TrEMBL record, chains A, B, C:
It comes from Aureimonas glaciei. Catalyzes ATP-dependent phosphorylation of adenosylcobinamide and addition of GMP to adenosylcobinamide phosphate. InterPro entries: CobU/CobP, P-loop_NTPase. It catalyses: adenosylcob(III)inamide + GTP = adenosylcob(III)inamide phosphate + GDP + H(+); adenosylcob(III)inamide + ATP = adenosylcob(III)inamide phosphate + ADP + H(+); adenosylcob(III)inamide phosphate + GTP + H(+) = adenosylcob(III)inamide-GDP + diphosphate. GTP binds at residues 16-23, 41-43, 58-61, 91. The keyword Kinase applies. This is Bifunctional adenosylcobalamin biosynthesis protein. It is an enzyme of class 2 (transferase). One of its GO terms (molecular function) is GTP binding. The active site is at 57 (gmp-histidine intermediate). GO terms for biological process: cobalamin biosynthetic process.
């Protein structure tokens, strides 16, 4: 099975664990389409470890990509850069949830607004990457539990409106929907 | 694919992470059958957070449901409420394991007894929800490791006798068995 | 579906969580083949809990198995014991990564060397078991994050060259590849 399945129209959610190859799989979906793409990055480099991880992701991508930073205003960035014949990759939703929590935002409302945007006809394919974080032991830390709840509910909302949902493990896809 | 697949006879195990939509998926299986159902709750509200979570689950369910509390005597509750034309939802096995640990019970023996009960012909479908908790980093805490071991072994025992096993991620089912 | 699917030639990667039944599933693959097998153990018993876990795994296996310890020199052990008509089980890769970290080894280089070895024609089937550890909350501990990164990257490398990759949950297999 080729990792370079044809890029679905509408929204595609790519879920996976840490270092599961989910970003690379999502990039592969878009690169195989040959479309010029916007990479919408939600990451903010708070420390050296984050700066290194962001740099590694950036170095891997080819010249087809234009990077846009959207730590908070994700829906606006998708709307602004969705062009016919283009493509959008959002990497990743879990960092967006983290940023929203740090900013004291209304996360259920933000999640609902993103799901509503993605449920409407989109000018181009939008692939969203996110970390599945709910399959370990319940965290001791109340904020980590809250984060896990927000992320899980967001995944359910986006999965419900997405045309395709893929779970990636060890770089390999399992189709959940589509 | 409809979430409302026909309700299998015998036991169905629904595994998933935190906020994966596993309870809602399990409720959907039973509600689609139109059968009056017993909701066997293993949760005990030790604090406000738990009370809120239990309340959210309860508010979501329709009037078809009768709630029964069974923090420890789960097999007895299943036997007492299994009626022809009815259905049973157990939510969830991981909280039952937690309660058994706090009560100092013999968990391998309790797990074996539940698997034996579920391996026998049942008067009605029984759907059991549980958290997959073994896919994160090994916990520092010895009790958390012990819990994780008990939960994992219980899942294997129940899955071996269940007619159907489903893994739920982002509200979407992956069929493991059945 | 029988757990005893025919044993594929080449490398098979069996991923799963703690107490998911992944080792038992992998052993079943090899036992069903009837081939005499080498069990290459990467575990080192640092404490009583580890000694107990190793003993449980060892007690479960039948007389067809010869146990070989390879906490660090895994590739050498595979090469030394790969014989036509035989079979090899490596249990598990995540403990190998832990041992390499404790020894201060160059883990990307070691991972690459193992993937290269497994990508070449092998005299007999080699089944490798590993823990998926990347599906929980980001660990607080920097060493745990580093371990999680090494394990995830190794899984991607091995999965890319393996003939078959299986994810095991509750003792049941999901085919990722092959």
């Amino acid at each position: 099975m080729s990792l370079a399945a044809p890029l679905a129209s509408g929204a595609t959610l790519v879920l996976g664990g840490a270092r599961s190859g989910k970003s690379r799989f999502a990039e592969g979906l878009i690169e195989a389409s040959g479309r010029p793409a916007f990479y919408i990055a939600t990451a903010e480099a708070h420390d050296d470890e984050m700066r290194r991880r962001i740099g590694e992701h950036r170095d891997r991508r080819s010249g087809l990509w234009t990077t846009v930073d959207a730590p908070l205003a994700l829906g606006e960035a998708i709307t602004a850069h969705a062009q016919p014949d283009g493509a959008i990759l959002v990497d990743c939703l879990t960092l967006w949830v983290t940023n929203l929590m740090l900013a004291g935002a209304d996360i259920p409302a933000e999640s609902e607004a993103l799901a509503t945007l993605l449920s409407q006809p989109l000018p181009c394919p939008v692939v969203l990457v996110s970390n599945e974080v709910g399959l370990g032991i319940v965290p001791d830390n109340a904020m980590a539990r809250e984060f896990r709840d927000h992320a899980g509910r967001l995944h359910q909302s986006i999965a419900a409106v997405a045309m395709r949902v893929t779970f990636v493990a060890a770089g390999l896809p399992l189709i959940l929907k589509g």
